[in-house]
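User: Reviewer 2 asked us to show a designed sequence for the structure in our supplementary figure. I'm pasting the structure tokens here. Could you produce the per-position amino acids so we can include them in the response letter?
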């Protein structure tokens, strides 16, 4: 049994030595050959130089939503056709994003009121505020009346009264002459 084991060990060691000898790299050196000189005149080439690139690569400065549908009816789908995302680069160049490259998250038109959705483009998150209108409401694009959207009845009346009263300065009747001189001036001719 020991002879068999010893024979197996010798065979295995012989294989390692044999395989190892075959993997030895042989280093050779090449002897340079001499060429006979040529009788042709040497040619000189003028090296070409390239101007170094001095303009830096433009980077993205801003990504913003420049247009979108602000008002939706109950259970209406998001309007991707109205969405416009603009990218501005550090060299002031801009381009409009193809909407198929952006995705929308958290859009919900099942509950009325003001909502915020997220637009994702190239790893950037852009917030988009939109309003789901009540059945009786209509679009009001003027920011001045923004607080009155989706209201009706007495609450609408109070809200409109607050809107038009904001910044109101009460004047006496005698002050009217001084105010009218400025408020009624012709913008094209200050003498009128």
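Assistant: Here is a per-position design you can include in the supplement:
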């Amino acid at each position: 049994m020991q002879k068999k084991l010893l024979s197996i060990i010798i065979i295995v060691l012989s294989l390692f030595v044999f395989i190892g000898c075959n993997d030895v790299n042989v280093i050779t050196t090449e002897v340079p050959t001499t060429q006979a000189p040529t009788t042709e005149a040497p040619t000189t080439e003028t090296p070409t130089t390239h101007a170094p690139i001095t303009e830096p690569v433009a980077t993205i400065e801003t990504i913003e939503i420049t247009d979108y549908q602000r008002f939706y009816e109950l259970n209406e789908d998001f309007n991707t056709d109205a969405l416009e995302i603009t990218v501005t680069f550090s060299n002031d160049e801009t381009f409009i994003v193809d909407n198929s490259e952006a995705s929308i998250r958290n859009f919900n038109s099942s509950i009325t009121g003001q909502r915020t959705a997220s637009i994702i483009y190239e790893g950037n998150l852009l917030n988009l505020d939109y309003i789901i209108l009540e059945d009786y409401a209509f679009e009001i694009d003027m920011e001045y009346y923004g607080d009155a959207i989706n209201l009706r009845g007495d609450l609408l009346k109070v809200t409109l009264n607050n809107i038009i009263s904001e910044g109101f300065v009460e004047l006496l009747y005698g002050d009217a002459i001084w105010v009218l001189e400025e408020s009624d001036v012709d913008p094209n001719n200050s003498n009128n």
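For the response letter, you might also mention the following. The first helix runs from residue 2 to 22. The chain is about 20% helix and 20% strand.
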